[in-house]
Design goal:
seven-stranded mixed beta sheet; globular
């Protein structure tokens, strides 16, 4: 029986209805054969829709997956504390499971896991809930009933920042969590949520990549058919084309390039010596050469690249721990990957990840370098190689998580530093450019760098590519990991 309020409520119009198909671009929908007027069928069992997963009780499903991944990660890591995990269901009926756990055991710190609210849908709006799907886990500061522990919440945020992981703030009205009984018992409690659309409905929607990022920092790119390459290459001799469809298995890739701090941990643990350290020098951009530097040579055809004695990745050790590690060869990058149990991405994987899965994009965010006049990456502004105005905020390298991430949550896929890929390069020519001293065409590099400028090469594009010998290193080449 309907209540009087329900009877008197205005009838919804067709404008109030929409179907969320889990993707964000019209071109991507058409690639999947979905058009205005396509038939739809309502189903509630969990299933993949585009890059999302839709189903009922996603709070139980996804949080149990996170707990399982945490326990798996614990087997590979020595913790300096005891870790307790628990799971409760149907807590809308009174938080009985959480309350029993809080009264039975005293914990030093508690982190509650739940689904969270997002505003990136027409019926809500980001003004009410600024978090969005795919934007990283939500650290909730306050809900309808309690405020969460300030110190613990910000410690989690700082930990995510230090690892280069995206995360979001949350303040929820009309919402509670299983953390409430622990707060009532006086235990410091934080709430971490998986961003979810249509929370507590039969068709909750989550982005499964968020759980992977929250555990080990890698973003999952789902397997499937993807478009790479281009039929309109800016530099045909580099082998940017042709446009083609490829089949890729699901893989995982880091949201950021490897930092100075992360490479330091590897070097300290293994005593590894890089190719540049063994050779005793590396290439440095001319404006970055100190007055007292010992010059060992210049690159033929690119006089702005100067061989400087004693230059290694350690030069940025004190100043820029969150910047990408550079002066790293392909050999050095693969050694780091072996130590961590990961690998370099293939060129196909890198290109798909950079595009956010959207075919034909020139840049990770679309087809304009500066949409609405906004700088989206760290590249050269001014007159190359004599003047860099730094209008994007940087005259040199930027932190690995500078600028906005793409649709997959990946930072700085173009600009900042070139990134090594696993592949051996094949192309029809080796034109000289601003990007690389004496490119040899051996191992693939993607993404361009802070030294790229459209007057020379404009290689800060998804399809752009160059190559260098596996033992070479420069001040604008780094790498990111995949698995």
């Amino acid at each position: 029986m309907l209540t009087r309020a329900q009877v008197e409520a205005p009838v919804a119009s067709w404008d109030d209805f929409f179907v969320d198909i889990g993707i964000e671009q019209a071109d991507e929908a058409r690639e999947l054969g979905i058009y205005v007027g396509s038939p739809v069928v309502f189903r509630t069992q969990p299933r993949q829709v585009g890059r999302r997963i839709v189903g009922t009780s996603m709070d139980d499903h996804i949080c149990l997956c996170v707990i399982e991944l945490l326990l798996e990660a614990q087997t590979r890591t020595s913790l300096a504390c005891e870790l307790f995990v628990g799971a409760t269901v149907q807590e809308e009926n009174g938080l009985h499971g959480a309350r029993a756990m809080a009264r039975r055991q005293r914990f030093d710190h508690v982190i509650a896991l739940d689904v969270g609210l997002v505003g990136d849908i027409p019926s809500v709006g980001e003004a009410s809930y600024p978090a969005r799907l795919g934007g990283g886990p939500i650290i909730v500061h306050k809900d309808a009933l309690v405020a969460y522990d300030h110190s613990l919440s910000w410690a989690l945020g700082d930990l995510a920042d230090s690892a280069g992981l995206p995360w979001q703030h949350g303040v929820f009205a009309g919402y509670g969590s299983d953390g409430i009984p622990f707060i009532q018992e006086g235990m410091p409690t934080a709430l971490v949520c998986i961003p979810t659309r249509y929370t507590h409905s039969p068709f909750e929607m989550i982005d499964p990549r968020v759980t992977a990022v929250a555990i080990d920092g890698l973003v999952t790119v789902p397997g499937g058919s993807y478009v790479i390459g281009t039929d309109n290459p800016w530099i045909p001799a580099d082998g940017e084309g042709p446009r083609r469809v490829v089949e890729l298995a699901s893989f995982r890739i880091a949201p950021c390039a490897v930092t100075v701090a992360e490479f330091t941990a590897f070097a300290e643990d293994t005593g590894f010596v890089t190719d540049a350290e063994r050779a005793g020098w590396s290439f440095v951009f001319v404006d970055e050469v100190g007055d007292d530097a010992t010059i060992v040579g210049h690159s033929a055809g690119a006089p702005w690249w100067v061989g400087v004695e004693g230059t290694t990745w350690r030069d940025a050790l004190d100043a820029d721990p969150d910047h990408p590690v550079v002066h790293i060869s392909w050999n050095d990058a693969t050694a780091y990957c072996r130590w961590l149990g990961v690998r370099l991405p293939t060129e196909m994987e890198w290109e798909v990840a950079a595009s956010g899965g959207v075919p034909g994009r020139i840049f990770p965010w679309g087809n304009e370098l500066m949409p609405s006049g906004v700088h989206m990456c760290n590249v050269w502004q001014g007159s190359f190689p004599s003047e860099n105005t730094g209008d994007d905020g940087f005259r040199g390298r930027a932190p690995v998580n500078a600028f906005l991430p793409n649709d997959f949550g990946l930072f700085n896929m173009v600009g900042n530093v070139w990134e090594w890929c696993a592949d051996t390069l094949g192309r029809t020519g080796t034109p000289s450019s601003c990007c690389s001293p004496a490119p040899s065409g051996e191992k693939v590099q993607k993404g361009g760098s802070y030294l790229c400028h459209d007057s020379y090469c404009a290689r800060y594009r998804i399809q752009a590519r160059i190559g260098s010998s596996p033992d070479s290193s420069t001040g604008n080449v780094g790498f990111r990991i995949a698995k």
